[in-house]
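Your task:
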Amino acid sequence: YTAHRHTQAHDTMGVKLAAGAVVCRGAQLAGDITIGQGTIIHPSVKIDAADGPIVIGENNLIEEQTVIVNKTPKSDGLESNATMTIGDNNVFEIGCRCEALRIGDGNVFETKSSIGREVTIGDNTRIGQMCEVTAAEVLPDNTVIFSKQHMRRTQAEPVRAKAYDEQLFLLRSLLVKFHPMLKA
């Protein structure tokens, strides 16, 4: 189920789409990328598997101007060709940037947040608007980072709003009507 179309906006060679994935042609996809069932990728998203594959799980929402990149800086000595793995049911809001190699399930990366390569994200974590996590660390499940001071707390239990499922359903129907799509 590999996409074989080549368009001016993006290189689809090596991009594997599961049935039910919704990927707008305005997204820039480069390298060995696997996109899971039900995942939605808006136009003007950039996903770059420059130094290793990127595997995106099911039912993720990746909004406009998000950048997801698997690239090893030459000077940091980290393994290149490592696989970046993004779990299921994650939300990447407008303009966020993610370089983390391991992301669990049910996380929310709010608008213009930034996650560095040496960060590992557990499950049900929320990174607040414009918050940055760039130092090497493992964020445990249910971590919330918020405010200009990047304060932290642990949420008592994961919150998965019914509204999220409704938003995915609505986007699947609207994006297909108004944007050209890559086909699985």
